[in-house]
Amino acid sequence: MKKILLLLGGLALAHPALAADWKMDPLGSKLEFIATFEKNAAPGVFREFDARLRFDPDKPAGGSLDVAVKVTSADMSIPDVNKEIRNKDWFDYAGFPQAEFHSTDLRRVEGNRYAARGTLSLKGAKQPVEVPFTWTASGDGATMEGELTLKRGDFGIGLGEWKATDTIGAEVKVKFKVKLRRG
Amino acid sequence: MLRNDDDSWGAPAKLLHWVMAALIFAQIALGLAAVGWRLSPTKLDLFVWHKSTGMLILALLALRLLWRLSNRVPELPREMAAWERWGAHLSHFLLYVLMIALPLTGWVISSASNVPFRIFWQIPLPAITAPDKAVADAFATVHGWLVTLLAIVLFAHIGAALRHHYVKRNTVLTRMLPWGTS
Question: Is A122 contained in some domain?
Fold first, then answer.
């Protein structure tokens, strides 16, 4: 009896280890956002962010994805624009310096394509978001890549007269490439 | 009459002169409004209008120069003094130079500022310089001086045309008017 309990306990401990824990390698990782400005692409990056993943590509259910983005590390490469996006009408650096995405609902779509359904907290708004990604294993590391489109209005980004979407478009594309290693 | 002759301007030359005159006045107003406007969607739109009009003026100018070079230029009245001829040639030369230099320096400012731009929200305009804030600031200053010079030359140009008409009573103004002949 004791032996069986030990065995069961061992299994219980062993099971979560099947879904490996992954840590992000910041050097090989990139998080971009592409807004539109007068019908042109206006690209930017978040220089600082971190992703943690519990994930088994063969058995995605039961995994989790947690992303933290330092909103104040946004860089749109135009000095005047960078000065503007920190304000209350846009990202509001002072009020909401960090954005987060949490998902405990990962599934395989097809082949190496997966989706993580979760909640994005950005500028005080929480919205359900599905993040599609591809998974490419390499040695003991892996790369997840994907893109999705968000509506800035859902998160109150661009207030007052900036709510109008003919000058600064409604949709913002988010692109990410995250290099992971087991950890 | 399409082509210019010794006495008068043909229809294409007149059309280009007056369309560009209207565009240049609108362009100066748009530029001043865009710079002075507080940051808002309206300001961004004003800049798109200003940059687009500048590119339109540059394109029309290319057409105009081709037309001018492939046509004779009506002669100046014989009684004009040497300094008057010299002034006429200098001011016309300066107008052409400014009509090139203003769009080009504007294009540099836009490129160096790294602001993406489509002419009339349609045709993407490539950058002609690398992003550099110092270059953008320097050319913005030059652009401002050039438009000041343009205002002075335009004042002289219009003043001279009116003097030809009302004081010297010759055909220099009327032969450029849309309905006028020599």
Answer: yes
